[in-house]
Amino acid sequence: MMKSGFTLVELVVTIIIISILGTFAFSRFAGNTGFSEVTFQERLVSALRNIQQRAMQDTRTATIYQFNFSTSPPAFGPSTDLSGSTTISFDVNEDFLSTDGFDEISGENVNLVLSDQSSSFTSIRFNSLGVPLTLNGASVVGQCANGCQIDFVGEQVASVCIESQGYIRKC
Asked: Which of 73, 122, 152, 170 has most Cβ atoms within 10 angstroms of its Cβ?
């Protein structure tokens, strides 16, 4: 008497293959919701560290390395010049340093929230030691004494923290 059917090994292998294919197929259909915030967080950490390094390497006294933010529409990028302009330069050669200035962040339904624990700010300037100063317009409003935080708020929240001595991290 001959029985036809699958062995236990064949069934287990089939289940494993179907689960692997299902995992990859699901990720293709899931979309990018929740990932945009983390992408902007990574770009901002990289860009802030870049500007901070430039400030620490430049020995000229009249040069100001400043990073500007806009909450409406949400955008970030370096200053248009080295004299402390509050305008964001969207023409930088390095793409990671700024957003496109129009709808890159808002197009992903993400908002930008800035806080210095005691006041709001629109710019961060780094001195030659890499220590941050927060500005609202052209006036200094703080030094990230208790830490500064920049939040990308969308499907999830991804934050960047800047400590008082200049350490920039994801938080």
From this structure: 152
CA distance 1 to 124: 82
**Is the CB of residue 47 less than 8 Å from the CB of residue 54?**
no
How far apart are the C-alpha atoms of 125 and 103, rounded to whole Å? 25
Helices (H) and strands (E) in the chain, counts: 2, 9
Identify the three-state secondary structure at position 33.
coil
Domain boundaries of the chain, sorted by first residue: 35-170
Q: Rounded distance, CA 85 to CA 153, Å?
A: 27
Cβ–Cβ < 8 Å for 61, 83: no
Distance CA 27, CA 43 (A): 23
Contacts of 146 by beta carbon, 8 Å cutoff, 6+ apart: 116, 117, 118, 164
Q: Quick count: other Cβ atoms within 10 Å of Cβ 139?
A: 6
Supply the pTM of this predicted model: 0.74
CATH topology assigned to domain 35-170: minor pseudopilin epsh fold (3.55.40)
Residue 135: pLDDT band by 50, 70, 90 thresholds?
A: confident
Q: Which tops the pLDDT comparison, 102 or 65?
A: 65
Question: Mean pLDDT across the chain, nearest whole number?
Answer: 81
